[in-house]
Amino acid sequence: MAKVERFEDLNCWKEARQMVKMVFLTCKKEQLRRDIDLVRQLKSASVSVMNNIAEGFGRYSDKEFIRFLDISRALHKRF
Question: How far is Cα 39 from Cα 27, in angstroms, rounded to an integer?
Fold first, then answer.
């Protein structure tokens, strides 16, 4: 199995990116657009999933990376 060199190559990061896209599109709908605080929270949480995967990938140990993946998974389950 080939070693992953970039976090952008991770399937979990790619899926998180798709989730961010869906959240941002959903937040454009009229029913949600009016609730600015909710929209801000949804967008922030979705981007946080993607960012945690990227940040964990850059850590020095597998244990730290797994910790960041666990944080991302917990955030993802909220959606």
Answer: 6
Sorted by sequence, the CB contacts under 8 Å of residue 56 that are 6+ apart come out as 64, 65, 66, 67, 68, 69, 71, 72
Per-residue b or e along 16-55, where b marks 16 or more CB atoms closer than 10 Å to that residue's CB: bbebbeebeeebeeeeeeeeeeebeebeeebbbbbbbbbb
Find, among 29, 60, 26, the residue nearest to 42 by Cα: 26
Tell me, yes or no, whether 57 lies in a domain.
yes
Residue 6 lies in a domain: no
**Each residue of 38-67: pLDDT tens digit?**
999 999 999 999 999 999 999 989 899 989
Count of structural domains, the chain = 1
Predicted TM-score (pTM) of the model is 0.81
